Amino acid sequence: MSRLKVSAYCSILAVSVVVCTCLALSVWQWKRAAQKEYLIEKRQSNQSLHEFNALEDLQNQSALEGKQYRVRGYFETSRLWLLDNQILSGVPGYDVVTLFRPIYGEKWLVVNLGFIPAAQSRAVLPQIELPTALQTVDVEFKIGKWAGFTLADRPDLNAAQPELIQYLDHAFFVAQTQRPIASSLAYASHPVVSEVQPHYEAVVMGPDKHRAYAVQWLLLAVAAVIIPYFAYKRKNDE
Q1: Labelling 190: which of 8, 35, 99, 228 has CA 20 to 30 A away?
Q2: What is the pLDDT of residue 128?
Q3: Nearest to residue 77, comparing CAs of 113, 104, 106, 53?
């Protein structure tokens, strides 16, 4: 096989890989737009608070998405965790994460109570005192993978500060607490502790942005075909 043919095959292969990748990303972004639109519509149609029934609602985890729940129960006051590297309104800090056991339920909920600013020194962690009496907490559930993008290979990287974690992980809390933990992560909608500010947004990037990205990836796929074609045609004409 001549060197010219090998070069042509390699060029076709490279273009095919680029085009397929761009098309796959375009389809993925379009699907994400549809998912976000569905979630927004579901949240808008479920503005009222639902009374949380641990025995029934945890049987169908996917049905929790897009609804606001009022949960009654007790906090685990003996320990909590601080989710590192959080920023709210330009202020660095942590998210306060704890366990909450709904009344009449066997499974515990992992609840993100919200943001607390960091001290000037990272060696000094915020001290939070959780209420011991029966509490009523308004929450929204996150369905699916708990952790966002992270480079950490495990949640607890700091042995000197075991309450400081890099990301949220269901298996981590099960192993740490040896308790049955619900697979849906709960986010507080209103303050439970005065210095902790809830800030969860179920939809950070709207469907329109996802569609715009989908179109961009589609145009890149088209360009990846057109540009080599005209370059090849011009070379043959010469």
Answers
A1: 35
A2: 92
A3: 113
